[in-house]
What does this fold into?
Amino acid sequence: MPLARAIECTIMPSGAVRHDFQYATPAYQSQTAVAGMWLFLATEVLFFGGLILSWIYSRHWNPAGFDRGSQRASLAAGTVNTAILVTSSFAYALGLLRIREGDARGLVRCCAATLALGLAFLAVKFGIEWPDDFRRHLFPSDPDFGVQGPQQGGARLFYVFYFWGTGLHGLHMIIGVALLLWIMHRTRRGDFSKRYHTPVLVVGLYWSFVDIVWLTLYPLIYLIGRSA
It folds into this structure.
């Protein structure tokens, strides 16, 4: 059963929660949905884990080049985005707390705050930081690459991982933004209540995972090279 189907229960006019026929109870259906999201996130760990392990392995063989690349990355933009993303997860957690208390309007407000912060993250990363990287000739295939000398090869490889890592993370952020809009739409429609809000929990797990991925990328991009 696909995850999207497993998270769908129906709230009856009486307030009771109706579950699909293949599940014994609504609680069992909700547990299945949460377990399905954890399984999906496990596959995402394998996906990002391979990228991050390759990054660490490559840095081991050319630490000076990777340090030069890291020192050219915008620490200010990375730090601002870290603060934005951590705050967004906090805002969504407050929304989950609100719906658990039966406050649907509170959930919508918290989702709106999370959405605004997520869009701010994307604006800083792809509207400010990436264009600045291109202006400074830090794209790895640029013939006038911004790092010269014997460390150029390692710095180019650093930026290969940088653009792949931040690009894939940004794609996951865009998916998360779409999910937030979906949660807000369904909340306004009256689909969630104190008794049933499994999709809110499932989307929260996804958003928190995207946050954790960034907290792993942040030191790899901005901190390790500067501490050398």
Notes: The radius of gyration is 21 Å. Residues 92 and 110 are 6 Å apart (CA to CA). The chain has one domain: 3-227. The domain at 3-227 is CATH 1.20.120.80 (Four Helix Bundle (Hemerythrin (Met), subunit A)).
